[in-house]
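User: Hi! I'm working on a homework problem where we have to compare a predicted structure to a textbook description. Could you give me the structure for the chain below?
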Amino acid sequence: MAACLPRKVVGIKGTRWSFSLNPGPFNLKEHVLITIFANSGSSYVYAVGVITIVKAFYHRDIHPLAAMLLTQTTQLMGYGWAGLFRKFLVDSPYMWWPSNLVQVSLFRALHEKEKRPKGGSTRLQFFLVVLAASFAYYTVPNYLFPTISSISVVCLVWRNSVTAQQIGSGAHGLGVGSFGLDWATVAGFLGTPLSTPAFAIMNVMAGFFLVVYVLLPVAYWSNAYDARRFPIISSNVFMANGSRYDVSRVLDPATFKFSQSGYDDAGQINLSIFFAFNYGLSFAALAATLSHVALFHGRSIWRQTKATVSGQQTDVHTRLMKKNYMAVPQWWFHVMLVLVLGLSIFACEGFGQELQLPYWGVLLAAGLAFFSTLPIGIITATTNQQPLNVVTELIIGYLYPGRPLASVAFKTYGYISMSQAIMFLMDFKLGHYMKIPPRSMFAVQLVGTVLASSVYFGTSWWLLESVGNICDPARLPAGSPWTCPSDEVFYNASVIWGVVGPQRIFGRLGRYAKMNYFFLAGALAPVPMWALSRAFPERGWIRLINMPVLLSATGVMPSARSVNYLMWGAVGLTFNHVVYRRYKAWWARHNYVLSAALDAGVAFMGIASYAMLQSRGVNGVNWWGLQVDDHCDLARCPTAPGISVPGCPVQ
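Assistant: Happy to help. Predicted structure tokens:
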């Protein structure tokens, strides 16, 4: 634009104002603002999941305005929490947000003038070469040969053994001997490993190995909680005979609330042993997050609080920002928070209370988000990992049981608004590093969030109304992308926490009451590490053992699969440990640029493939490799004698 548009300055008569159609050369700060604008809409809009389970899983209607307000308010509420904790999570030099380093490196590669070294390449040239290679290669796993996203050697050898496939399946089992030749497999669920510190990767992989290769096999093959009646890894809920739980029997169709008589007839809900322990580990991770932050960061939080009150600033980035730019007034965030809370209450109380959540539920969810933003923000800002939080579902399940939409709406306001705050704070820190005016950042984040939420809502509503059998893999054609695996997990969670309620699953009326001991175990878990770090301060590696990250390692399973963890850990440790130690100069120059290029290539090819082919029903050549799976069909089967499940042999 700067090269094509006229440079002439046009003055407005009678005023000092003038303008030009030429914006001038495109600069780094404009690029960062565009990126922050895009980041505001890049994350999944969780409220769309609420709409999806209502229409595609429960097969009920919801007023479009109520759905739209839910989508917007849950995204925007995070602004309030971000504003309240900027001093702690942005201004503090100890909160460095590792994932931002990828974008900082990319900006430098694209904008800084660099002389090409002899026999080498500039960072921009390196980026473009990797981008082109990633774009071209992703045609194979995305369209021509999806099976290579998850290859199981064990399943290819033992085609008729349930136990072998449970051990070898990377998609539905333990993943022994499985691998994927797809960057989306590496980074799709856990994020790019190249931006995650090696110590954090080690914590995640240690937690993964302990859960998947120690706890899970022992519990399953010892038949704890009748585990062998069900798949070894599944997010579904089951009847005692191993069949899928018929949720319609425990829901009153007239009131869309829990039916005690239907539940008495259907019986207790049963979970796969992995899903049961995953909830227990989520309890532990929540408690561990609070105790870890209190023990390891309590003093620094107190010092930062005193420095904030006294107006002292010690970070050079903060001093430069305050010196050169006007800060965003705190009352902007307060007004935003009050306005969004009001609209949230209107969305829940209005429209015939379709969302089932009363006004006090919205306020309670907001309070939980307020108290959890700081501790979870500290973990994310230092490890690039965000511990999952099930306390919102647990609380509303006890206080207001039998209402599935109240449960998911409460979680969306209580946890997702906090998660949005973390994302906003991360972008604020990116602007902090790149010296972007705070008020400009606020404006592009606000506009980007509203625009992206509207597009997400409109697109999802259109898909739910136009795609037949959406989210029902049994009725969809082979190769169809509309299987909704994450929404299925969300739906099952709404059954567990909302319909039946925690009292009948994790309370005295349920099978899994002992999972509550994980709260105590999690609260105590950081204490030995803290004590050892105090006793042996010279051994810095002790402080790097992060119990919240370790305990929440498998938190995104079973949406993520074993193969995702194995490939993520292998790639991450290769680059951030081996390459970092042996080729530090290359790593410093290219690591983050490599990550950005791989991500961009996959994203561009995914969009191009969908726009030109998949949106028109052209899903690839119909052959063995088209299956978006690892051909381990028996891995989803039970192994208890006498249990009959369609597609599975009876033991």
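For your comparison, note the following. The chain has a mean pLDDT of 86. Residues 273-310 form the longest helix (38 residues). Good luck with the assignment!
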